[in-house]
Design goal:
CATH class of the largest domain: Mainly Beta
Radius of gyration: 30 Å
Helix content: 10-25%
Number of helices: 2
Number of strands: 11
CATH architecture of the largest domain: Sandwich
Structural class: alpha+beta
Strand content: over 45%
CATH superfamily of the largest domain: Lipopolysaccharide (LPS) transport protein A like domain
Length: 197
């Protein structure tokens, strides 16, 4: 009797193994709808940031003095690409200091990206820059070339000073936003100091 029970039990185990094997084969074949390229793209390291930071505030120093300060809700760094870059998808607040560590200029935007190979910052969407004279520069796109130490734009630009509002297309300035030129002026509006509006 024991011999028959053992044989019967072995048959049940073999049948169970076959059913399990068939289930695995069906499951594997059902999962093969994705192509190799799709699977590779999903796991490709280049699609994910090598570093992601929330609520970042950091300073860059030069000879022991604060030169720049960056404030951002989110920073994503992509070092695994052929042309690495750092993205600020929720905006950036950049503060530029002079040699006495006093604020020279500030720039805010709703989106920014830093191209590492070119040492070039690109700020987009409601860009607002203010220099130490309280002159306000508004545009939709602004570039800061750290190699050439210039800030420029080819887009529509509006500059508001205490005396006038200047509008035009194309802009170039030093990093302090002090010495600037508008390439194509489209309007000059004198500000009435007596007008409280």
């Amino acid at each position: 009797m024991k011999h028959r029970f053992f044989k019967h039990n072995l048959t049940i185990k073999t049948a169970g193994s076959i059913i399990l094997l068939l289930a695995v084969i069906v499951l594997i074949s059902a999962c093969q709808s994705n192509t190799t390229e799709e699977i590779q793209a999903a796991v490709d390291e280049e699609n994910f940031p090598s570093l992601s930071v929330q609520d970042l505030e950091t300073a860059v120093t030069d000879s022991g003095k604060t030169a720049y300060r960056f404030i951002t809700p989110e920073m994503n760094q992509y070092d695994n690409l052929e042309k690495p870059y750092t993205e600020f998808p929720k905006g950036l607040h950049l503060i530029i200091y002079n040699d006495n560590e006093e604020i020279d200029a500030q720039i805010k935007s709703q989106y920014a990206i830093y191209h590492e190979s070119q040492n070039l910052w690109e700020l987009q969407n409601n860009v607002e820059a203010v220099n130490f004279k309280n002159e306000v520069i508004n545009t939709e796109q602004l570039f800061w070339d750290s190699n050439k130490h210039i800030i420029y734009s080819d887009e529509f630009i509006k500059i508001t000073t205490e005396q006038e509002i200047l509008t035009g297309y194309g802009f170039e300035s030093d990093e302090r936003l002090e010495n600037y030129t508008i390439k194509r002026i489209s309007g000059i509006l004198t500000v009435d100091e007596n007008n409280t509006n």
